[in-house]
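name: query_chain
kind: protein
chains: 1
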Amino acid sequence: MKSRCGRLQTKTEHPHVEINPKICKGSPTVVGTRIRIADIAVEYEYMNYTPDDIVNAHPHLKLEQVHDALSYYYEHRADIDSKIKEDQKFVEKLRLSQR
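structure:
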């Protein structure tokens, strides 16, 4: 399916979430942004941000987008947590290579 911008995307049951292979390597993102659902999950779960804190950190997001992103995260938690761990390993590998 093509979005209003003509981009290919996968439709989800979440109106504020899209999966586009050309954006963030196909990671689920907030529609119209490059903010990954995994990034919002990290801020909420690991950094203890509230949804309002997340909106304050990303003023272009609306509260309903953050809540929808968190709902999507909880429905796909295993997959997204796996991606988060993969990203953490990559960052650690980069840190070690810089020493």
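note: The chain has one domain: 17-97.
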